[in-house]
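Lecture 7 notes. Example A: sequence first, then its structure tokens.
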Amino acid sequence: MKRGKRFLDVLLAMGGLLVLSPLLAAVALAIWAADRGPVFYVQERVGLGGKTFGLWKFRSMRAGADRQGPLVTVGGDPRVTRIGRWLRRFKIDELPQLLNVLKREMSLVGPRPEVPRYVSLYSPEQRAVLRLVPGITDPASVEFSREEEILRRVEDPERHYVEVVMPRKIALNLEYGCRATVWTDLGVIVGTLRVILRSKP
């Protein structure tokens, strides 16, 4: 599984970067033209074995927005830019993570890596998820495809995320880790694409 998974990662990551290069260039230009701010946003995340790394995204919020509010994002968050709303709707902001995949920091499919602040809250049992290579998408991403809207409807979004959403995500990913194969990874990728194509404004 490990060798087959890495082969699939490299094949699809390189192919994706090549095929999508015109889109990636257009998105980068649009982000820069909108406010002359940085194109990319690099955030510290916790990966395999608890090692931190810089996760790459197209910037979808105002520059410096991570210092102006909670770490979680809710639907209608005023920090999100106009083009950022479109990027997040179709998950295009996540595409630069194909570079993280090529650098062996991530896989195409695996638990979405968390920020150190939230990982520090993991129980000893939950920390088992750090034995898995983090990914661009995972079963939890499919189940919580409307996460921003879920958090929008609660009184304390960050508390709800930490106490309800995050534990469920970890449970789903630990279950995934016990049965993961190249075929289940392909199934998660297909499921993620279906969610994106069904997304509504």
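Example B, a different protein, same format:
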Amino acid sequence: MSASGAGTARVTVTQPLQMELSVTQMPSRAVISDTVSVGVQAINLSHAKAYNVRAVIEADGFSPMGTIFIGNVDGGMSAEGTGSVAVTGLTRSSFSYGQTKGTVTFFYEDADGSEMTEVRHFTAAIESPFSRSADTEEDATGQWWIIMTAVAAVIVTGGAVAAVRRRKGCGV
């Protein structure tokens, strides 16, 4: 005996998310008490939309001023976000400055609300505010020559004006 039948079935087809996430702007050196800007980029390489794309920075000596929110990224599109990080100095070391290692953790969701994460690592050198003294000495030397040239120009101009007045005063 053979039988046949007809009916409907609901099949859900989903596109997997494929994201390329990167840190586009991260200083390799920072000075304690500075505020630095950090840039991140998300490229959606799939056809599905990525929702709530954001990045969180964690590192000893860095105090982020919130989560970097990129937003929703349509399939085949890219988006960028920037955030600020205060450089506070190392807390897990006997010195406030030195080399630090950190992470940028990216979070994003698919259409079903499932959250995915990816982590990127970075290193940065945290420097003392007094480490800029070598740069300042070079600038001060350059400024000294400019000041001396200006003073010499004033003396020469003053001497020329005095000589012209003497000639006019003598009636020559």
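Note on Example B: Residues 156 and 162 are 10 Å apart (CA to CA). DSSP finds one helix and nine strands in the chain.
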